[in-house]
Amino acid sequence: MAHLKTRAEIEKIRAAGRIVYKAIHTAGCAVAPGVTTAKLEDIASQIISDSGGSSPFLGYAPNGHPPFPAWTCISVNNQIVHGIPGDYALREGDIVTIDCGVELNGWIADSAWTFPVGDISARASRLLQVTHDALFKGIAQAKPGNRMGDIGWAVQRHAETNGFSVVRELTGHGVGTTLHEGIQIPNYGRRGKGTPIQAGMTLAIEPMLNSGKKEIAVLEDEWTIVTADGSLSAHFEHTVAVTHSGTEILTNGE
Ligand code: MG
Ligand code: MG
User: Fold this and answer.
1) Distance, CA 197 to ligand 2 centroid (Å)?
2) Is the overall model pTM greater than 0.90, yes or no?
3) Which of the residues 69, 106, 159, 195 has an alpha carbon 20 to 30 A from that of 140?
């Protein structure tokens, strides 16, 4: 079921997206050895509340999960997504993903970014670059006349030709008045397959790439998802609006 937005509704999501951008990148500027993930949560949550927004993550409890206890998901190294901020102090060489959603005046935007902590390995650096670029290759396919499989195909192809694997169990999604609006956007797929992409769709596109194998595991907190083989994982996400005059990124601070 596609929820097609008007121009005015897209601009409301963009307003939420500006706060998302500020929260992620202000916290990202604080990333350094010795900084706890709870500190990054504090920075992001303060910006969101000061901006009049709220968190669609806080208290989120799908399918009998315990309610998510924070405004951001902060996932370090082999953690793929849904890490819970806490007293872990970042170490030189880590990678850390800050994933953040904001609700403003009833409309939601969602984005994530993986940051290096100090100097990181060449392999980790390459993982960040390839995952970042996979996001933009996916976004380039998000246009009327294409299908969701075109997005997944572009992400998967870029990941795998560069020697990384794509998580299967977690997908991008429609976003609007709710955090997950029905449509799923796998990060793998076949060209020309899947749900047709239409102008007015607002989509959270979010490649999650692993440096090792694609399989996942869930920690005992029932939230944190990790790579089964312990390899590093990176995650980049933007909320975008599909329009007839091009795809607009709503979480890039513009
Ligand atoms: Mg997100
Ligand atoms: Mg998302």
Assistant:
1) 18
2) yes
3) 106
**Which ligand sits nearest to residue 99's alpha carbon?**
1
If phi over 0 gives left and psi between -120 and 50 gives alpha, with beta otherwise, what is residue 134? alpha
pLDDT tens-place string over residues 150-159: 999 999 999 9
Beta-carbon contacts of residue 73 (< 8 Å; ≥ 6 apart): 57, 81, 82, 83, 84, 97, 98, 99, 100, 112
pLDDT at 63: 83
Q: Compute the distance from residue 207 Cα to the ligand 2 centre, in Å.
A: 10
Q: Ligand nearest 205 Cα, by number? A: 2
For ion ligand 1, residues whose CB falls within 5 Å: 99, 110, 112, 237
Kindly list the distances between the CA atom of residue 168 and the CA atoms of 73, 145, 189, 218, in Å, as whole numbers in the listed order: 19, 24, 10, 14
Q: Which ligand is nearest to the CA of 81?
A: 1
Q: Does pLDDT of 222 surpass 80?
A: yes
